[in-house]
Amino acid sequence: MPGSRFYYEIRDGGILARDDEGQVFADGKAAREDAVMLLTEMARSLPGRGKDKNKITARVRDGAGKLIFTATLSLDVEWND
Amino acid sequence: MALFDHATSAPRNRLLAALPPEDLARLRPRLEAVPLTLREVLSAPGKPITAIYFPETGYVSMLAYLKDGDVIEVAAVGNEGIVGMPILLGDDSDDCEAMVQNPGTALRMDAAAFRAELDHTPAFRSLLLRSALFQHRQVVRTAACNGRHHTDQRLARWLLVARDRAEGGAFAMTHELLAMMLGVRRAGITVAASQLQRAGLIHYERGRIEVTDRPGLEAAACECYGVARRALDHLLGSNPRVQSLRCH
C-alpha cells in the first residue's frame, strides 16, 4: 500500500502532544492537508482561553525524524489604545 | 454462552428487563442469543433490515459515510437500546450502517416477529417508542454538542459513556477509531487525550484506556454527558430490576 508514516508534534507555547505512533499519508501534500484541517479544528478551542495572542504550531516529520513542514495558526487581537 | 439458562434470569438488555414478566415470557422463544463480533455489520445503509438486536454487552456504532470518504459515528447503542429502530417506526432500512465497535453479545429477533409483537403487545410497543424518543434525543444532543463543544470535552463525554458500558475498568480503543467517532483529525484526538492524561483523568497505553479520575473526567466533559445519563434514568424509570443492572 502506498504512503509513508508521518509524525506530528503540536505546540502551543509549550508542547501539547507528540505522536509516537505516527500516521500514514499518501505523501507530504496529504499530510499538509491534514495539518491544515487539524489546526482549523483546534482553533475552535481558542475562544475559551481569552488570550489576545494565540499560536498553535504543528511540526510534521518523516520516519527518519526529518522535519517536512511546519504549519502555524496565529490568532491575534490588537487593541487600539 | 447460554443467556437464558434459567427461565427467570433477568435479561441484560435493559429494555427487555423493563418489560412486565408475562410479556417478556412470551418474547423469549423469539429471542436468539448471538455474539457481536468486532467490526461486524448488523445492517448496511439502504438495505432491508431483517433482524432487531437487543445488545447485552458490547456496543454498536451507527456510522454515516460521507461522499469524500469520511466516516463519522452519529449514534451509539449499548444495552439500553435496540439496533433496527426504523422497523419500529414503519420503515425497512436505515441511512446509517450499524457496526459492532466493542464486541459482546445480543439477543436477536426476526424483523417480522418484532412487527407482530409490536402490534400484539401494547407495553412492548410503548416501551420501544419511548426508547426511540430517547435515541432521537441523543442524536439531537450530539448534533448540538458537535457544533459547539471542544474536542477535549467531547472526548471526555465519549470516554465516560464507553466506560459505563465496558465490563471491567479498561477498554480497547485507538486514536483512529476515536477520531472517526468524534469526527475530528486523529492528531486532534492525540492532543485532547494528552490533555486529559496530563490532568490525571485517564491513562492511555498501547491501545487501552483506563479512567483514573472519574469525577474529574465528569467535570472535564461537557454537560451533554450528564444530560444523557439523566435521560436514560428517565427512560427506564425506577424499575428495581432495571436498577440492579446499572453499570458503574
From TrEMBL, chain A:
It comes from the Bacteria. Residues 5-74 form the DUF6894 domain. It holds the Pfam family DUF6894. This is DUF6894 domain-containing protein.
TrEMBL record, chain B:
The keyword Mitochondrion does not apply. The keyword Transcription applies. InterPro entries: cNMP-bd_dom, cNMP-bd_dom_sf, Env_Response_Regulators, HTH_CRP, RmlC-like_jellyroll, WH-like_DNA-bd_sf, WH_DNA-bd_sf. Residues 149-215 form the HTH crp-type domain. Residues 15-115 form the Cyclic nucleotide-binding domain. GO terms for molecular function: DNA binding; DNA-binding transcription factor activity. Pfam families: cNMP_binding, HTH_Crp_2. Keywords: DNA-binding, Transcription, Transcription regulation. GO terms for cellular component: cytosol. It comes from the Bacteria. PANTHER family: CRP FAMILY TRANSCRIPTIONAL REGULATORY PROTEIN, HTH-TYPE TRANSCRIPTIONAL REGULATOR ARCR. This is Crp/Fnr family transcriptional regulator. It comes from Roseicella aerolata.
